[in-house]
Amino acid sequence: MIVGYARVSTQEQNLQMQMDELQKFGCFEIFEEKITGTKRDRPALNEMIKMLREGDRVVVYKLDRISRSTKHLIELTELFEEKGVEFVSIKDNIDTSTATGRFFFRMMASIAELERDIISERTKAGLSSARARGRVGGRPKTPTKSIETALKMYHSKDYSISEIVKATGVSQSTLYRNIDKINSKNEELNQPR
User: Fold this and answer.
1) 78, 97, 104, 105: which is deepest, by most CB within 10 A?
2) Of residues 153 and 74, which shows the higher confidence score?
C-alpha cells in the first residue's frame, strides 16, 4: 500500500498542495498533520507508523515535512527498513528502494540540517551584534500605564476582555499574565506562615 504523510507547522497553513501531489503519486491513504516538525511526538505520524506493513511505501512531498532533523530522519528510515517499508520524497527525488536513493536521502538530510544550523547561527550572531549596539530584539514592551489601566478596568468588572484590549492596546495574553501575577502574589500573602 502507498501511504502519504502531509504536514504543515501551523493551523493557518494549507495542506492542499501536498495533498494534491500525494494523490497524484497514487497514495491510498494520507495522514495529515498541522503541527511543528520539531516535535517528534506527532499523533498522525505515530498512527501511520503503527499501521505500516512490510511492502508498504511511505511518500512525502519533501523531507522536511516528515522531520526537521537528520537524526530523526535517519531513525525513521531505519524503522522503515526494519518494517520492510520503502520511503519516497517527491520533491527531493529520493526513493529508498534503491541504493542510490538511500545514499541521496542521507546526504540531503545532512544538507538540510546544515542549512537550518547556519540560519540559526546567523540569527544568533545578528541578535548579538544588535545587542552590542544597544538594540534589543523582540516586541516592544507594553507601557506600564496601559497595563495598570487595563487591570483597573478588569477589576471594576464593568468591561469585557475585548473592550479592555480595544481601549488600552494591551494584548489579551499580557492582561492575563498580569492578572495571574496579582493572583499568585495574593495567594502567597494569604498563606499561613
Assistant:
1) 105
2) 153
Catalytic residue check, 110:
no
How many domains does the chain fold into? 2
Residues 94 and 154 in one domain: no
Within this chain, do residues 19 and 97 fall inside the same structural domain, yes or no?
A: yes
Task: Kindly report whether the global pTM for this prediction surpasses the value 0.70.
Answer: no
39 or 173: which carries more pLDDT confidence? Answer: 173
Annotated catalytic residue within 9, 89, 97, 171: 9
Domain of residue 172 covers: 144-190
How much is the pLDDT for 193? 62
